[in-house]
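Sample intake sheet
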Amino acid sequence: MTKIRLLKNAAVIAASVSILAGCATNAVTHSFTVAVQPPSGFSQVMLTNVIYAVVMSDEDSITKLGRVDRNVAYDQGIRYDSADEHLRLVRVNMLNFNYPILKWVTLAAVPDTFPLLKDGDVVAIRMPTNLDGLLNFSDTKEGTSAVSVVCLVDRKDYTDCWKNVPVPDPKNRMKGANGVAPIPFRASLRDYGFTYSPRYDAAGHVLVEAPAPAQRNAYPLMSERF
């Protein structure tokens, strides 16, 4: 009964955070998010392994996205009018290893060479911290980022791809694209060889000098690279 009560409390807390996310995005709600982190701490499995994640909205300038995206962005260190707003960013969710009945929602940087990501795509994420994972990312190039494209929603094999992603430890997965990916969690994001250039101006328009994303129909997926 105690376990059930704890899970119910966790669900209530998650719902409260979601309500706040829809209302405002500022230092106050960010402090609340920090305060309601689980007492046991964040799962080290998620912070020391590359994890599958599902894209939750089409990739676009963070300045054009809705309040939920903005709230997630703030929690991950993307401050208003910062240089980090000009990067390629995408909201994703993944298996929460502390509370498997819930999902962990975060924001990840997208490398220059990746295709533009769409709602439903599956990526593999390297996430070294659960909060402020993109703070000053434009300067440091260190933080939470997609490191591989796993499944693309407009490919013919998407359904089979989504259901059959390889997971080294079957215990660490739920239905579909969840769990630990068979990709090394390298000591530094720089070790993957990606570049991250500004893509958008302050108004959310694509910069003329921004690198062109790869074509979705020709991009090699994780199964072809690892």
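Comment: The chain has one domain: 2-201. The CA atoms of residues 48 and 187 lie 10 Å apart.
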